[in-house]
Amino acid sequence: MAQQRVLPQSKETLLQSYNKRLKDDVKSIMDNFTEIIKTAKIEDETQVSRATQSEQDNYEMHVRAANIVRAGESLMKLVSDLKQFLILNDFPSVNEAINQRNQQLRSLQEECDKKLIALRDEISIDLYELEEEYYSSRYK
């Protein structure tokens, strides 16, 4: 992959959208995590009671945690989409893998052919000797 391949416009656009999704999801995780840490700090004086503030902070943390989970699931979906894109659009590596497998199978076929020819020759020699023995025997 040292050389840069020129991608069609639709693939280029798709890769740009993947990149944007990645940045957005990571930013969402970071922002929500930062806000959870800020919310966890205890403030000394507020205009609302501690119980009310605690309940509000708890609710906000749950919402932000759910946002982090959503962004994480979106990242997992992005990884799946990238794998699918790579499998469907990486023809050179697929062709290389097919060619390697063909070469392996051809060498295996040649090896089997050689073994079969050697076996045929041995059986032919043994059969010839058995026929000679049979036809020269007085017990036919």
UniProtKB/TrEMBL annotation:
It is found in: Nucleus. The keyword Nucleus applies. GO terms for biological process: regulation of transcription by RNA polymerase II. Keywords: Nucleus, Transcription, Transcription regulation. InterPro entries: Med22. The keyword Nucleotide-binding does not apply. GO terms for cellular component: mediator complex. One of its GO terms (molecular function) is transcription coregulator activity. Component of the Mediator complex, a coactivator involved in the regulated transcription of nearly all RNA polymerase II-dependent genes. Mediator functions as a bridge to convey information from gene-specific regulatory proteins to the basal RNA polymerase II transcription machinery. Mediator is recruited to promoters by direct interactions with regulatory proteins and serves as a scaffold for the assembly of a functional preinitiation complex with RNA polymerase II and the general transcription factors. This is Mediator of RNA polymerase II transcription subunit 22.
